[in-house]
Every structure is written in structure tokens, then in C-alpha cells.
Amino acid sequence: KQWYQRRVRERKAESTEVGTKSEKKEKKRRFSMKKKKRNSTGSIAAASSMSSLASASVMSCDSVLSNDENKPDNILDMTAKDTPLHPPAITPRTSSVSRNTTFFKKARIMELKEEEEEDGVQTPTNSPLPPPPPACSLDTATAALPLPPPPALGREYTVSVALPGSICDNAQSPQLRSYLAGQIARALAIFNVDEVVIFNDNPAVKVKGSVFEGVTKKTNANVVLARILQYLETPQYLRKALFPHHPDLKFAGLLNPLDCPHHMRASEQYPFREGVVVKRPTKKNKGSFLDCGIDKEVQIDKDLEPGMRVTVRMEPGTYTTAKKSYKGTAVSPDTPRKELGAYWGYRVRLADSVSAAFTECIYKEGYDLTIGTSDTGDCVDDINIRHFKHVIVFLGGLQGLEPAIEADETLKETETRTLFDYYLNVCPNQGSRTIRTEEALVIALSALRKPLCDNGLR
Which of 368, 354, 386, 371 is CA-nearest to residue 440? Predict the structure, then answer.
């Protein structure tokens, strides 16, 4: 009996729960229906109001554009019932514009007639507007205006720097010596120096030809500096073929690269490239093959010895049409500079004295402008450099430029100031007692950059 009563109560509870759930569903359904009805009535009202506004605007436009007397004067007095269900077509706005343009055309014709009557010239009544003046052709326009000068791409003038190799003796270790040479190489490349001359300022060091022989040291500072400068100037893909293993180049791999324009990537298609002649059997008078750091070898028009560095002018279209090897022509290293104005690295030259730096010039004309630097010279801000083609700038060593000139037997009795065209102090009012040569190089080239660029031969 108790179980039956408990079961009855559970069923009643379940029925009430079902009823509450059904009631909730019914309330939600009714609420959603009311919401839909409210939205639909609102949209209908909005549509009717928009249609009334549109009809009102149509009637207003029609009343403005037309001159019908039956239209009401006050548009605001119109009601929605007065507006027709399908309003009449509106006169397009272009008609008013066309009427305005025709009015101005007629007015312009009348003005022209009056002007011609005053001048004594008669025009027909039905003549249109006068034709516009004939357009100026490209030939007449270019003939009337002065043509601009062609861009000065090439560069004829050269900049040379002479400095003593004894500055490397002041380095405390081979690593610092190599780093010092790397600093000088970076400065030469940044300021587009075409030649660097390393002269000997120590009379105790003797020279035979172009090879220096030190007195007490195993290696000579002049040769070390020259070798590192040559190594850094050479493109990376040519160093293995041109430079064998040497103790002076032990730490050259740690130096910062110059990244000059002639240090090209394999993907660059430039008109000029640097290459080295490879040892490969070729037919006579057919030209040698060069390794230029690209996917194929380059065949030139001359037979050269293997291991020689060559500047190559690539033939037009050879990058895209070549099958087995590219075609090129051997040219002078100065050709990219003279034709395109591109900086193509520097040359390294050894001189046994200051006088040899002048006399053993690689240019046929010689140096037509010489500049010496010293703390006793004239201020660099007060000079006007004359025009030149080949300039050389001299820098001193630890003791300056004067001891190097006094040590030269040829120039022993010559006054230092009279030896140069300009004797300059490139850093007046210096805050340090001494300026190192690698620092003086950057200061001098920075101070002389604009005068040299403005007065150099193009």
C-alpha cells in the first residue's frame, strides 16, 4: 500500500513537470509570434513612410523642374493621400544641365560676334563655336624647350691615397694588425678610392724591386698591409684561385667584407664582372674560359694565361640565350668607372719612398693634384680645390709626414709644404694630442669628398 501511494505521488509530480515544460514552450512560441508580428508591422510602416517620402520628393522635384500651374505652391501642405500611387516620370536632371550649357554657348557666341564686329570681321549667324587651337606636337614642344644635359654617368677622375706601411708595426698582435688593415680597406671602399700606395718611411728597410726585406722582423709591415688590402678587395669567389695559404692572411677571414659593386652574387646580371682564367684546353685564337662566379663559364675573345684576373664585359643577352657558356670581352678595369661611373675596387701599389710614390704613377698623365695632410697645414675649410683628373692624398705615420720626407734621400732638402699643391689640416681644433692614421684617413676623405666630387673631371 505504501509503495502504491508513493508511486501515485511520483506520477503526479511527473505530470506537473510535463505540464510546466509544455507551458514554457507555449509561452516561448507565443512570444516569438508576437515579436515577428511586431517586426513585420514596423517594416510595413517604415516602407509606407519611405514611399511617402519618396513620392513627396518626387513631387517636389517635379514642382521645381516643371512649370505646371496645377501643382500646389507649398509642398509641405501635401498629404499622403494626395500623392499618386504611380507618380509621373521625372524630367531628367541632364535636361537642365543641357539647357544651361546651350545658354552659355549662345552667350559665348554673342560675345564673339560683338568682338568681331568691333574688329571689323563678320561671322555667319549659324556658325558654331570657334575650333580650339591646334594641339602642339611633341616635336615642336621639344624644339621650343631647351633639352636637359645628358646624365653624367661616367667618371674620368681618380682618387689615390698614399700612407706608410709602418702603421702596422704599432699593432700589439697579428689579430689587431689584420683588423687595422681591415679598417683601412673599409674606408678606401666607402669613399671610392681607386688606388692605394703603401710607401716605406723607414730608411733601415731596404727594397729590391717590389719585395721588401725587413731588418729584424720575419715579416715586413708594408707587405702585410698590401697583401691584406689586396685580399679584401678581391671578390670572394676568386680568392681561392688567386691567394694561396699564407701566414699574413691567417686572420683575414675575421675581417668585415667590403661588399663593393664588383663583389657580385651569382644571380646578378650586371654588364661587367670579374673573373679568373681557368686551366682548360682551348683552341688557338678562340679565347680563354673564365670563372666569374656564376653557373657557367665565360668565354672571352683573348687567349690568356691561367690564373690571371680579368675584367669582363658581358655580351648583351648572353645571360638568357647562352647554352654551354656565356660570352664576353676582356676590358680594362677602368672601363666600368668610365662608362657607368661604378666603383670597381682599388689597386694596391708598393713604393720604397715618398718620391717613388710620385714618380711611379700608374697613370700616363701623372698626378695633376697633390694634397698633403698635417696638423701644421692650412685649414681644410678655407680652400678652393682646382679642377683635376688624378689626385693623390698623402697621410703620415706615427711621427707624421715630415719625418718620412726627411728620411727620403731624394727629398731630404725639400720643404714639406712646397712638395704639395695643398698642405691641409683636415681636423682643426682636435681634442686629442694625436690622431691615428686609420682615423685621419676617414677624416680626410670625409672633408675632401665634396670638393673632389665637384672639381673632378667627368
Answer: 371
Taking only the tens place, the pLDDT of each residue in 12-68 is 777 665 556 667 677 777 777 776 766 665 555 555 555 554 444 434 444 434 444
| Biggest alpha carbon–alpha carbon distance for the chain | 144
Distance CA 332, CA 74 (A): 93
Is residue 411 a contact partner of residue 405, using CB atoms and an 8 Å limit? yes
CB atoms within 10 A of CB 146: 7
CA atoms within 13 A on the CB side of 31: 6
Q: Is 261 exposed, middle or buried (0-12, 13-18, 19+ CB in 10 A)?
A: middle
End-to-end CA distance of the chain: give it in Å, rounded: 124
242 vs 411: CA distance, rounded Å:
37
Which are the contacts of 274, defined by CB distance < 8 A and separation ≥ 6? 235, 238, 262, 264, 292, 293, 309, 310, 311, 312
pLDDT digits (tens, 9 = 90+) for 191-225: 999 999 999 987 666 554 444 444 334 568 899 99
C-alpha cell at 160: 689615390
Residue with cell 673632389: 452
Q: How far apart are CA 145 and CA 440, in angstroms?
A: 48
Are 276 and 200 in contact, with CB atoms under 8 Å apart?
no
Helix 174-190 / helix 437-455 crossing angle, nearest 10 deg: 10
Specify burial of residue 101 (Cβ count, 10 A radius: 0-12, 13-18, 19+). exposed
Q: Which residues are paired to 379 by β-bridges?
A: 425
Q: Is the entire prediction scored with pTM above 0.90?
A: no
